[in-house]
Design a protein that fits this description.
- It is a single chain.
- Helix content is about 30%, strand content about 15%.
- Helix 4 packs parallel to helix 5.
- The protein is built from eleven helices and 15 strands.
- The C terminus is likely disordered.
- The protein is globular and about 75 Å long.
- The two termini are about 30 Å apart.
- By secondary structure, it is an alpha+beta fold.
- It has two domains: about 45 residues, no CATH class; about 300 residues, Endonuclease, Chain A (2-Layer Sandwich), CATH 3.30.870.10.
């Protein structure tokens, strides 16, 4: 167990190097064989090395690993109950063996980088898991902070290559990836090169607003452009004055600093080469070069990729709906100039919902070249602006309904609704995803 992020008392200024001290004592009192990784300077100060892993290896014996659990979730009440997180369970002995080997290295290394300060230069080969390929990498890697090249750091270089190969879309959630040298920059570059009409890009990013801001900030990636969301969206006390009667929404709880804590990128979830990139890694070079991290890349597992994609879309829509419902902000967001904030935090007028339309213009966005049509084409795995025609059986059914309509209308029969039952869907826990 590492010491986590050091905490500073706002009143006394005293720094607590080991916020996990109480949990550490509890585990030892219950006879847990616990290995300490306490990162501090020779004088007891804060270091840049952060123990950021969150993984468990489940074994049938000392040398028989069965499966692993990893992801972004901190094993705390705030991580489970107040943040957006994800967890990944990989039920494969070979993948579990790599995690077990890394655990043993960490246990032997004490407070040093494993093994004894040596940094890694390459990513291990993918492991076959059923019809998918799973690549597991552990930090630290060699490289330059703030810069991702074709080879360094090797874990982000591999992820960058997969993102740059996107054909239809990229969805993501990120927690403070950093100002530069991140996968967020790679995604924005891809969007700029391919164009917002050729690549479906959606995501939510929690950014660090700076030491003087009262709350973290959320950015919404819509068509690849980052739009800073006002604090009313980040912690909505109420959606709007018109909707306050409907439901009271929960604000940020005390002693919690994260909302979007998940770290995941999904590439082409509906395409021929779906990819999920996740783990404890914050998806920036600082994490690759300085921290204890794990990064898991799962390729060619469409079910898992789609489950992650739907989860990301749900979270994006949670904020996007409120973003489009808010009136023009009256004050600037922390760290952003008034003019820039007003321009970027208010989407085009067509995006704002002003009530139901009284003509047929409401359907324009669903027609070819319409924004909603572009999104539908992505989720249906159709080419951009595809010419969609009704199936032949639908046309036949429509003709039969028209013939029957006249006869039924004369009898004044009560209206009925038929609901279809569709196969192929599974119910999952909010944070749980499993690769068998």
């Amino acid at each position: 167990m590492a010491n986590g992020s050091p905490q500073k008392n706002r009143t006394t200024g005293e720094i607590t190097i080991d916020p996990n001290a109480e949990a550490r004592e509890f585990l030892r009192n219950h006879h847990i064989d616990l290995h300490d990784r306490i990162f501090e300077t020779a004088t007891g100060g804060i270091t840049q090395h952060l123990g950021h892993n969150k993984f468990a290896v489940f074994c049938d014996g000392p040398d028989i690993p069965r499966f692993i659990w990893t992801g972004s979730t901190n094993w705390t009440w705030s991580g489970l109950c107040t943040q957006t997180n994800n967890a990944l369970l990989v039920n494969d002995g070979d993948v579990a063996q790599r995690f077990l080997d890394q655990w043993r290295l960490l246990a032997k290394s004490g407070a040093d980088y494993p093994p004894a300060g040596k940094k890694l230069t390459h990513v291990p080969a993918p492991l076959p898991v059923d019809h998918a390929q799973v690549t597991v990498s552990f930090t630290p890697y060699t490289g330059k902070k703030g810069t991702i090249t074709s080879t360094e750091p090797a874990d982000l270089a591999r992820a960058t290559k997969l993102i740059e190969g996107a054909k239809s879309g990229i969805l993501f959630l990120m927690f403070i990836p950093g100002p530069n040298g991140t996968l967020l920059e790679v995604i924005q570059k891809m969007n700029a090169e391919k164009g917002a009409r050729d690549l479906f890009v959606r995501g939510v990013v929690q950014q660090d607003p700076g030491p003087t801001a009262k709350v973290p900030s959320i950015a919404l990636a819509h068509r690849g452009e980052l739009l800073p969301a006002p604090f009313d969206i980040v912690y909505p006390e109420a959606v709007s004055t018109e909707m306050r009667w409907w439901i009271r929404e929960l604000k940020k709880l005390s002693h919690t600093n994260a909302i979007i804590h998940s770290k995941v990128v999904v590439v082409d979830p509906m395409g021929d080469h779906p990819t999920v990139i996740t783990g404890s890694h914050n998806l920036g070079t600082k994490a690759s070069l300085l921290n204890d991290e794990n990064l898991v890349i799962i390729e060619n597992h469409p079910e898992l990729a789609r489950e992650y994609a739907v989860n990301i879309a749900t979270i994006f829509n949670q904020y996007w709906w409120r973003f489009n419902r808010l009136p023009a902000p009256q004050k600037k967001s922390s760290g952003v100039q008034d003019a820039e904030f007003h321009a970027k935090s208010n989407p085009a007028p067509d995006h704002l919902w002003k009530g139901l339309k009284h003509n047929d213009q409401w359907q324009h966005k669903y027609l070819p070249r319409g924004e909603q049509r572009f999104e539908i084409d992505f989720w249906m795995n159709r080419g951009v602006h595809a010419d969609v025609t009704a199936p032949e059986e639908f046309e036949e059914a429509s003709t039969r309904r028209k013939r029957q309509h006249g006869r039924r209308a004369a009898h004044r029969r009560p209206a009925r609704a038929w609901f279809g039952r569709y196969r192929g869907f599974r119910t999952l826990t909010a944070a749980g995803h499993c690769v068998h």
